[in-house]
Fold each of these.
Amino acid sequence: MADTVPSDSWSLGDPYERYVGRWSLPVAREFLDWLAMPPALRWLDVGCGTGALTAAIREKCQPARLTGVDPSDAFLQKAIARFEEAIALEPG
């Protein structure tokens, strides 16, 4: 029997996005509505994952600066792909 390690789909952006991510953006929008923060704040999304909350902040809050960090390179790549222009998403 070969020593193989099963793939952990939770560490990959696409499988996570299909299972959990479809709810993340609607929940993030509701959360930001509840927070009711003023525009032009500096935001830090720690554990940004695939970028749903980061995208919602950009869409709804008119941030002065927006930074997302996540230890997962696969999740960061998925988050970066959400945006057409540069946002400071840095590995954590």
Amino acid sequence: MNVITAVIKGRHSIRKFRQAPVDEAFIHDALECAVHAPTAMNLQPWLIGVVRDKGTLGKIAGLTDHGKFISEAAVCFVVFGERTAKYYLEDCSAATENLILGLHAYGVGSCWVAGDKKDYAEDIQKLLDVPEKYTLVSLVPAGLPDEVTIAAKKETKKVVFFDKFKKE
């Protein structure tokens, strides 16, 4: 295992954060990781917001159905995609994953909270004054982990096939 695969395999969703700020250098480097994500036709259809204001974090948390813990995060990244870009969901998902891995590399915990197709997507867009040409793809609350819960993953051999799928 190398350092990159160790970072990927070591990442876990964090929903409990210490009340401490995230270093600005970590935030900026993670954002650079996000904008270096693969993107169809190099369109880069993303717009990424960085929310640190506690009042706004609380409002975002209140709008979500499974993101109440956002109010306790030091920062929440909001990833939007240009609605007219054919592959905005794939591109912005790649940017979200790069962002999460970039944060984890610095010991900053985060959790991917769904945005696309959620009833609250438009409300968050309006709350943050994001132009209508964008749609919410994901929310990434982040901070220094207070508690790490490790969820079990399926065995690789149960979810992978080579060449052709074989019925058992």
Amino acid sequence: LSDLKLKLQERGFVVYSPAMPDTHNPDIGKWVAHLDNLVNKLETTDCFVGYSLGSQTIMRYLESLPDNKKVSKVVFVAGFLKLMNLDREEEKALAPWLKEPVYLTKVKKHCDNFTAVFSDNDPIVPLSNKDYFAEKLNAKIIIKNNMGHFDNLKDISFIVDEIIS
């Protein structure tokens, strides 16, 4: 999704693409705090785009906000609450993210416009995750064909379009 920043900047957006700390040992508290520090002053015009574990980070960040804070849009690409086909190392690193619940009712208070994008052949994120996003966040669901885990995404226009719409 590296081209996304450039494409959005070309359209006049101010874009931050944070490098998260210690990506081999992702820590919920550290990642949410890192995002919070980057955001600094949340605006109602802010839009968040999260890919895979970044989606979880955004959800956990939003659920931590005071009730009166809102953002304009959130787009999740390969967002998840459940995963599959993890090796032992991945299971260990992601266990806290999968075991510590995300309170989607709290997340929903902070945005009225969610989109969740899934691939019909993602080897890690089961398509059934779409149900959580649709039911709990009233998210618009987009299912792309044969995109895997969106690792080698060539065409990001659908993400740009979703942010702009």
